[in-house]
Specification:
It is a single chain. This protein has 187 residues and is mainly α. It has a single domain (7-19, 28-175), classed as Endonuclease III, domain 1 (Orthogonal Bundle). 52% of the residues lie in helices and 2% in strands. The protein is built from 9 helices and 2 strands; from the N terminus they run αααααααβααβ. The protein has a two-stranded parallel ribbon. Helix 2 crosses helix 3 (48-61) and helix 2 runs antiparallel to helix 6. It starts with 12 loop residues before the first helix and ends in a 12-residue tail after the last strand. The relative contact order is 0.18. The model has no long low-confidence stretch (mean pLDDT 96). This is DNA-3-methyladenine glycosylase I. Keywords: DNA damage, DNA repair, Hydrolase, Metal-binding, Zinc. It is an enzyme of class 3 (hydrolase). Pfam families: Adenine_glyco.
């Protein structure tokens, strides 16, 4: 019997695997939260499948998404990234990865972990929405507005409310699986 999935992923093996194994699953690990933050910031203005197809290229180019290394990237490394055709070569987004890594570490120092910080916005547990059709899911919410505003105040870049809401969906802070999707009750 075929599993019912959210409509947005159907028809692409990579998309379906991502949907089935990762999307909407609560993430409390700082390294993974940072990876999704980097990927979401690069996704701004592009489709998620574009980023997903380049994910392993990003992983290789950005030292496995190691925020401690990224926080110390030199101009030479930034130039190398800007010339790397296997990733999105947006100069401002590349520079923002460094700034965001530095600020990510500051949040860890202040809150004990980035996870403690970000999950506090939803009282530590996922918000379970009742999305009938993925096209009806919100692009942002008052919570993503608040997180975005706070991150910007802390110096983060490319963290608009829509980017943050996509991050919340990806990391399971909100469950926006369609109610008849097999993952809805699993996450």
């Amino acid at each position: 019997m075929k599993k019912h999935r959210c409509g947005w992923c159907i028809g692409d093996d990579l998309y379906e695997a991502y949907h089935d194994q990762e999307w909407g699953k609560p993430v409390y690990d700082d390294a993974t939260l940072f990876e999704f933050l980097i990927l979401e910031t690069f996704q701004a203005g592009l489709s998620w499948i574009t980023i997903l197809r380049k994910r392993e290229n990003f992983r290789a180019a950005f030292d496995g998404f190691d925020y401690k290394k990224i926080a110390h990237y030199t101009e030479d490394k930034l130039n190398e990234l800007q010339n790397n055709a296997s990733i999105i070569r947006n100069k401002l987004k590349i520079k923002s990865a460094v700034t965001n890594a530095q600020n990510f570490i500051k949040i860890q120092e202040e809150f004990g972990s980035f996870s403690n910080y970000i999950w506090a916005f939803v009282n530590g547990k996922p918000i379970k929405n009742k999305v009938e059709n993925y096209k009806e899911a919100p692009a942002n919410t008052p919570i993503s507005d608040a997180i975005s505003k706070d991150l910007k105040k802390r110096g983060f870049k490319f963290v608009g409310s829509t980017v943050i809401y996509a991050h919340m969906q990806a990391t399971g802070m909100v469950n926006d699986h369609e109610v008849d999707c097999f993952r809805y009750h699993e996450v």
